[in-house]
Amino acid sequence: MDNQEELSEKQVLDWQFEELLKTLIIFTLPAEKQIEANGYSCVGDDLVVDFDSYYCCIKDVLLAKGYITQAQASSLDAFDTLISKYTGAEYYDFWCDPVRLATDENWEEIRVNAKQILAVLDKSHLELRINISSLPSAPDASYMVQVIKNELIEKNK
C-alpha cells in the first residue's frame, strides 16, 4: 500500500478487531508466553491498555458495524469488569510483576475468562505466531532493538 493512500474505515476496524483478538489470546497464555508475545515490560498493564483501546474505546462501532453481537459485547463487558477489579496503585505488582503473572490465582481466572470470550466470539480456532527479531537501532548504533510481531493463525498450522 502506498504511504499516501488512506486506509478505509473497514480496514482500520478490521485491524483493530484483529488486535483485540490478539490481545485476548495473549491474556490466555501462560506467563512466559505472555512475556514473549508482549516483551519484557509491565505485561499485564500493557494488555489492559490494549484491551481498552481495541474494545472499550470502540465498542459502539464494533457493534454498529457487526464485528460483535450484543451478547458478545456483554461477555466482553464482563471481562472488562473482571480486569477492572484490579485497578489502582495497590495493584501495580499484580499487573507488572512477572512472578505474580505466573503464580497469582487471579491471573488464572483472567486466562480462563479470556478463553471463554474467544469461544463466545467463535475464535477459539485461532492462536498466535510470535515473531521476534532484532534490528540495529540506527545504521551505526552499537545496540539492537527487539521487534515483536504477533500474527493470528489457525491452530495446528
What is the alpha-carbon Rg in Å?
A: 17 Å
Class based on secondary structure composition and strand pairing = alpha+beta
Order of helices and strands: HHHHHHHHEE
pLDDT < 50 stretches: none
Spatial separation of the terminal alpha carbons: 27 Å
Lateral strand order in the biggest sheet: 1-2
Descriptive labels:
single chain; 157 residues; alpha+beta; two-stranded antiparallel sheet; 8 helices; globular
Explain this structure:
- By secondary structure, the protein is of the alpha+beta class.
- It has one domain (about 10-125).
- Helix content is about 55%, strand content about 15%.
- It has eight helices and two strands.
- The chain has a two-stranded antiparallel sheet.
- The radius of gyration is 17 Å and the shape is globular.
Task: Set down the secondary structure blueprint.
Blueprint: H1 9-28, H2 31-38, H3 43-54, H4 59-64, H5 70-84, H6 92-96, H7 98-103, H8 105-120, E1 126-136, E2 144-154
Helix pairs in contact: 1-3, 1-8, 5-8
TL;DR?
The protein is α+β, with helices and mostly antiparallel strands and 157 residues long. Helices cover 56% and strands 14% of the residues.
